[in-house]
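One chain shown below:
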Amino acid sequence: MIKIKANQQLVFNKINKMKKIIYTFLLLLFIGAFTNEIFAQTNWKAPIEADIMVNPLSGDADSVKKGKKVYTQMCVICHGAKGKGDGIASASLNPKPANFIEANIQEQTDGAIFWKLTNGKAPMAAYKDILSETQRWELVNYIRTFKK
């Protein structure tokens, strides 16, 4: 009987030790994911030459409508219908998709946003070979409609 209690105590101690290890691991994982999310969107910079690109469709209302159509087909799943980065796929992505309403996105030049759409950065897809140059500029124009 004493031997059984001693074995139970050993098992109990091992379980508690494993719980502590798991909780510590989860805490570190959470901190890492949170830190990565904060820095991922703010650290992704387009090169300087992207900033001088001129949007050939700037002010074209028809391009915004076309951009919305492309956005609905290609972007909503990650960035959400309202551009907040809360699409259904966003839960599984790290870093999280950009929130197009935020100032750090809206303050970027059209050229920088176009460059990011073109080249991507995991988990953001590169659309260089998927969308035409015109479609990417249309997306830029639609993304501008998410301003606060």
Summary: The longest helix spans residues 2-43. The chain has a mean pLDDT of 86. Residues 42 and 104 are 7 Å apart (CA to CA). The two ends are 70 Å apart (CA to CA).
